[in-house]
Write a structure and sequence with these properties.
Elements (H helix, E strand, L loop, with lengths): L3 H7 L54 E2 L3 E3 L2 E3 L5 E10 L10 E8 L2 E7 L4 E8 L6 E4 L2 E6 L4 E3 L13 E5 L11 E7 L3 E3 L5 E10 L5 E8 L5 E8 L2 E8 L7 E3 L1 E8 L4 E5 H8 L4 E4 L8 E8 L2 E3 L5 E10 L5 E8 L3 E3 L2 E5 L3 E10 L11 E7 L4 E6 L3 E3 L8 E3 L12 E10 L6 E7 L2 E2 L5 E6 L5 E2 L6 E8 L9 E6 L8 E2 L10 E4 L5
Parallel strand pairs: 3-11, 13-21, 23-31
Antiparallel strand pairs: 1-4, 2-4, 4-7, 5-6, 5-9, 6-7, 8-11, 9-10, 12-14, 14-17, 15-16, 15-19, 16-17, 18-21, 19-20, 22-24, 24-28, 25-26, 25-29, 27-28, 29-30, 32-33, 33-38, 33-40, 34-35, 34-39, 36-37, 36-38, 39-41
Length: 528
């Protein structure tokens, strides 16, 4: 939703709650048992420090696992024509420590293409890769993979620090290299059917005709970018005397403007794209911008009044209904839509219930549950948009939503920009008191490019908010100090400290929220 995230960031809201993406964990799984304990202060040191995991968080914290992909066929010859290859990638969600929620999406990047794979009846996910004519011959592999489960745990091969054999399986491409040098197809003419159109009452069409000299190379396709409002890509079709295409200029309220042909793209038989831009087109063919006459709407729409009922809800134990009514006005193009968010996550479906195009009333309802709105973030953000795509928004603070604390504790280095002594200790801070900090839940690894070493050996000591040394395993702590074993840290090397990806649920605050997944890089000082 345009403008919503920035508005909440301006309020200092950075934690998007249990459904926000936080490094590798984002959306929470659907939770049927939503009974939560009464809110407690993270500063309270009394009582048993061991707190169960909040029911708003899935117990599936394990990352999806990747198998070995297969390409069918494994070898393609694209010397004379392009080919299509079926790629199949086994992906499993093994869960941990709770039951697996299942894989929700898989994306791969191969041959400069981002491809979303689709699930099959087995654990394999499949998709099709287009291999263009004259693709560079040799072995090509998948460059990166992103797999996400239904609990929001995301494995990205460029971020998780582990080498994956899935990136080694090759697709063999056979192709004759293109001639050297590649001769660019020559544009011989470009004409536009109209130099002026009026879209005050209805949409209009503008036709383009392009001729290309194909004596040196054959053209596969031709397209052009036409900077109407909105800008559009026009694909041209081959005719007996060249290539033709049509752009539809919609009725609009942007005022009179000039629409240019921003560029022409010609794809030759070798798979090379040749672009010619506005200035060169004007110099060679005398192309002038198309004058588009449209209605003018420079003013933003207005939010006249916002009403919310009830103004206060307690959503700690059950879902509560909230109804929002918004009166709007726009004296030119008219109001096109109204969007309402409660906090950064919950949207309210709004519909017009009465009024005219220029003055109307919108209403919508939703139910807010215990895990929907982060603590103290139940503010209303209202946005109205007119037919000229201009918008206005307002933040309404009258709604008070009472929920438990859903903010995940953050892990950071005490001095993130400084180089640390190889003798240690390395100071790790938590932004609130947490339990479960131990040698298994907090790791230090060596960075080797994109990859991490096995966890390094060292000992942990912990301190509470007052700086007093306490037991790491049984008391709430605000700081952990990792003392490396002799020789574990080398001068002038890169390292990282992180919650254990396999035990990220172990470190949690007083409300039962697990620590955020994060990787905090640091360097050691050179010996000199």
């Amino acid at each position: 939703m345009v403008g919503f995230s920035g508005a909440f960031e301006a309020l200092g809201v950075s934690d998007m709650g249990p459904r926000g993406r936080l490094w590798a964990v984002g959306a929470t799984a659907a939770v049927t048992a939503l009974v939560m304990a009464a809110p407690v202060s993270a500063e309270d040191e009394t009582g048993d420090p061991a707190v169960p995991l909040s029911s708003c968080w899935s117990r599936d914290a394990g990352l999806p696992t990747l198998g070995t992909p297969t390409f069918t066929p494994s070898t393609v010859d694209v010397t004379d024509q392009p080919a299509e290859v079926l790629v199949s990638l086994p992906v499993q969600d093994r869960g941990g420590p709770g039951a697996a929620t299942g894989v929700s999406s898989v994306w791969i990047y191969v041959l400069d293409q981002v491809i979303r794979l689709e699930p099959t009846s087995t654990d394999a996910w499949t998709g099709r890769v287009s291999v263009q004519r004259r693709t560079e011959p040799g072995e090509h592999t998948i460059e990166s993979i992103e797999a996400t489960d239904k609990a929001g745990n995301r494995r990205h091969t460029e971020e998780d620090g582990v080498f994956h054999s899935a990136l080694e399986t090759p697709l063999t491409v056979v192709s004759d290299p293109p001639p050297e040098p590649v001769v660019e197809p020559a544009l011989t003419s470009l004409t536009i059917s109209k130099q002026k159109v009026s879209v005050r009452k209805k949409a209009r069409k503008v036709a383009f005709h392009l001729a290309v000299d194909e004596s040196t190379t054959t053209v596969q396709s031709v397209g052009l970018r036409f900077n109407s409002k909105p800008s559009q890509q026009v694909e041209l079709s081959r005719t007996t005397d060249g290539f033709t295409g049509t752009a539809r200029v919609p009725r609009s309220w942007f005022g009179t403007y000039r629409a240019k042909v921003a560029s022409v793209q010609v794809l030759d038989e070798y798979g090379f794209v040749h672009r010619t831009h506005t200035r060169e087109l004007a110099d060679r063919f005398g192309i002038e911008p198309v004058k588009v006459i449209a209605r003018d709407d420079e003013r933003r729409p207005r939010i006249v009044k916002t009403t919310v009922s009830p103004t206060s809800i307690d959503a700690r134990t059950k879902r509560r209904k909230v109804t929002v009514t918004v009166k709007t006005r726009d004296d030119r193009s008219g109001v096109n839509s109204v969007q309402v968010n409660i906090g950064p996550e919950v949207s309210v479906a709004m519909r017009k219930i009465r009024g005219t195009r220029r003055a109307n009333t919108w209403r919508g309802s939703t139910r807010v549950g215990p895990c929907d709105v982060p603590y103290r973030q139940g503010k209303l953000l209202v946005q109205v948009r007119d037919r000229a795509l201009r918008s206005d928004d307002a933040l309404d603070t009258r709604l008070r939503v009472r929920t438990d604390d859903l903010r995940r504790p953050a892990v950071s280095l005490a001095h993130p920009r400084r180089a640390w002594s190889a003798e240690g200790p390395i100071r790790v801070l938590f932004d609130e008191r947490v339990t479960g900090v131990n040698d298994d839940s907090l790791l230090v690894v060596r960075r080797d490019g994109l990859y991490w070493s096995a966890p390094l050996t060292g000992t942990l000591s912990c301190r509470n908010g007052a700086g007093t040394k306490v037991s790491c395993g049984s008391e709430r702590v605000r700081e952990a100090r990792w003392q490396p074993a002799p020789g574990e840290l080398e001068p002038g090397r890169r390292y990282a400290v992180m919650p254990n990806p396999d035990a990220v649920l172990d470190i949690r605050d007083r409300a039962g929220n697990p620590a955020r997944r994060s990787v905090e890089d640091f360097e050691t000082k050179d010996e000199g």
